[in-house]
């Protein structure tokens, strides 16, 4: 630690002469690209290890990492091949890391969401991470981070990088920490931090089909199967799903889904509409799995979304059975599962969402389709009034929606981009009776 403290005090250009730089360039690992979420949900992109020392990084990155203060990157490696077990382990490790960073001496540091990917990106290559910024550049922070990494006894262990600024040239560098067998931690040679172009597609998107927006039942099933040793409820959930037909078919009566952000009036509308139409009212996740919801809500995205996804297949079997007898109204279904998953995983703001028509907005090929999906929308102010008026316990997402209007915009925009079937938007701001009239009229004209 003393050594690291001294290093900090020396101007970097003394330590990092041309000969050392030439040597390092022959040994350099492939560059890594980073997407950093900054306050206000803007994304900054930078690269580490490109052969462009001297090129200035994004000024927002440089400003964040400028002295005084120090930034560290922590990223969770992914196993090549990307089998569901490895993905679940990496996701749980990332979650554990975030919880640990929120305690003790590290609590006073700022955390920024960080994604790390290789050149070209692609499915199975994305590392979830975090950028920790210590405004006071305390040596305790480095000590605490290394001690924290020591507590990870087995691979994969999060990787740690430390950012340095050459005060003379303003060039940014990253030095990674490595654990040498039996010899403790050492820092490897610094690598330059340079600019990076924003990729065409947000780097989280290629992973969505295996990590949150599952395109078919088996993809979600494989994730819960990989969790059964650590989450006993996963086995129980799988047993329920496996009792449902693989291709549930709709009966002759119409099936109408009501979607929307929390507190837009779905419960109110679905109850009134089902009474009026003498329809069966169902909801996703279905009542038979609601006792496990809290358990899965505390899990990382991949596990949580697998639970909601499989819940939809159970609802599908309920729809199949009920729609043979009468109309069916469903309070949330696959569109909610996909919209919340995409909005959570795609960092940054609305413009970073995958474009309309992208495959993540397509209905799973093996999931029973409804005849009509209505999306209830109200202004943010009215929605907040309704949340406060209700005064119930909030889920993590409701709290986030309340706090984060960008997240709310992303969820709503995802609903709008859903395809085949798409969502018909209904202004749900008027009084209850008027909203119900509009909904019933749309059902009659669309479903006969
Ligand atoms: N048209 C309306 N005008 C005024 N208040 C409404 C209207 N519709 C619903 N509310 C009230 O807003 C609150 C939220 O409504 P509701 O519970 O139906 O929303 P929700 O979309 O089902 O929420 P969640 O998804 O969180 O379960 C409730 O207190 C409800 O009585
Ligand atoms: C069905 C479903 C729900 N969620 C999230 C979205 C909301 O914040 C909560 C509340 O749902 P409620 O039961 O309607 O109150 O759950 C989700 O993320 N994915 C889903 O599939």
TrEMBL record:
It is found in: Mitochondrion. SUPFAM superfamilies: P-loop containing nucleoside triphosphate hydrolases (SSF52540). The keyword Thylakoid does not apply. Its EC number is 2.7.4.14, 2.7.4.9. InterPro entries: P-loop_NTPase, Thymidylate_kin-like_dom, Thymidylate_kinase, UMP-CMP_kinase_2. It catalyses: CMP + ATP = CDP + ADP; dCMP + ATP = dCDP + ADP; a ribonucleoside 5'-diphosphate + ATP = a ribonucleoside 5'-triphosphate + ADP; dTMP + ATP = dTDP + ADP. One of its GO terms (biological process) is dUDP biosynthetic process. This is UMP-CMP kinase 2, mitochondrial.
């Amino acid at each position: 630690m003393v050594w690291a403290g001294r290093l900090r005090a020396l101007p970097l250009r003394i330590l990092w002469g041309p000969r050392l730089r030439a040597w390092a360039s022959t040994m350099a690992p492939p560059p890594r690209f980073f997407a950093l979420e900054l306050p206000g949900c803007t994304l900054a992109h930078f690269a580490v290890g490109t052969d462009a020392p001297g090129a200035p990084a994004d000024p927002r990155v440089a400003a964040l990492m400028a002295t005084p203060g120090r930034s560290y990157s922590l990223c969770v490696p992914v196993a090549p091949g990307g089998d569901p077990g490895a993905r679940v382990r990496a996701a749980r490790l990332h979650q554990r890391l975030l919880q640990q960073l929120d305690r003790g001496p590290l609590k006073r540091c700022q955390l920024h969401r960080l994604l790390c990917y290789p050149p070209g990106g692609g499915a199975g290559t994305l590392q979830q991470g975090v950028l920790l910024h210590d405004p006071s550049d305390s040596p305790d922070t480095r000590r605490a981070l290394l001690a924290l990494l020591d507590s990870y006894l087995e691979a994969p262990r999060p990787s740690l990088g430390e950012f340095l600024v050459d005060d003379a040239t303003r060039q940014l560098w990253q030095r990674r920490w490595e654990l040498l067998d039996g010899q403790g931690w050492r820092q490897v040679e610094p690598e330059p931090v340079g600019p990076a172009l924003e990729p065409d597609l947000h780097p989280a998107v290629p992973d969505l089909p295996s990590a949150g927006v599952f395109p078919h039942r088996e993809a979600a099933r494989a994730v819960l199967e990989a969790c059964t040793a650590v989450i006993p409820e996963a086995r129980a959930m799988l047993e329920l799903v496996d009792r449902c037909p693989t291709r549930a078919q709709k009966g002759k009566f119409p099936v109408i889904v009501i979607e929307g952000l929390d507190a837009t009036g779905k419960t109110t509308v679905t109850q009134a509409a089902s009474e009026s139409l003498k329809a069966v009212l169902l909801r996703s996740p279905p009542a038979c799995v609601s006792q496990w919801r809290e358990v899965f809500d505390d899990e990382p995205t991949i596990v949580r979304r697998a639970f909601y996804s499989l819940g939809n297949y159970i609802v599908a079997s309920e729809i199949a059975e009920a729609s043979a007898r009468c109309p069916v109204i469903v309070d949330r279904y696959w569109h909610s599962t996909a919209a919340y998953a995409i909005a959570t995983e795609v960092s940054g703001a609305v413009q970073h969402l995958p474009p309309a028509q992208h495959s993540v907005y397509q209905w799973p090929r093996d999931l029973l389709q409804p005849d009509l999906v209505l999306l209830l929308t109200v202004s943010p102010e009215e929605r907040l009034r309704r949340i406060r008026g209700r005064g119930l316990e909030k889920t993590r997402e409701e709290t986030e929606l309340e706090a984060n209007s960008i997240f709310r915009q992303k969820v709503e925009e995802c609903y709008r981009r859903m395809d085949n079937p798409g969502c018909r938007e209904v202004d749900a701001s008027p009084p209850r009776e008027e909203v119900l009239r509009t909904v019933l009229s749309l059902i009659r004209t669309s479903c006969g």
